[in-house]
Amino acid sequence: MTIKPRTFGHSAPDALGRKIALSLEGHVLEAIVHREPGAPPEDGVPPFFEAGALIDTGASDVCIDFRLAHALKLRQIDQRTVGTLGGSVLANVYLGILEIPALDHRKLMPLLALRVARVNYSVILGRSFLSDYIVTFDGPNGCCHFIRAEDAYPPPPDDE
Q1: Integer Cα distance of 20 and 151 in angstroms
Q2: What is the pLDDT of residue 5?
Q3: What integer best gives the mean pLDDT of the chain?
Q4: What separation in angstroms does the CA of 78 have from each of 41, 81, 124?
């Protein structure tokens, strides 16, 4: 994975003049999943887990491997039926912090844990994460460009 330098507004904007937060070669970001704030430390339980996270615009939520949820002893907050390529499956929903260091992103959010025997990625970044960004894929160059939604769509001016 190659991450191009961040350009938080002090270098070339995209074709529409928006500030590019990150240009990424490929479709995998480095992610860190943390236990929720205030979770008491436990012997043998790591405070976080680092993994490659696959960008998946077809996924509605951030999904994690169920083994990761169990290893971190994340707190289950719900259960939901979700559609997958293999049909509908029951997913446990846990509360955790998703951190994407390359984007300075750190957010407490629901994480769906699917019980899948074999996974290539422990974290799937679905639309619940992607909704904070405008993500464009440059096919010829194999790059994803991230623009913070608040930078692309500034709030309207105050009417007085």
Answers
A1: 9
A2: 42
A3: 85
A4: 23, 10, 19
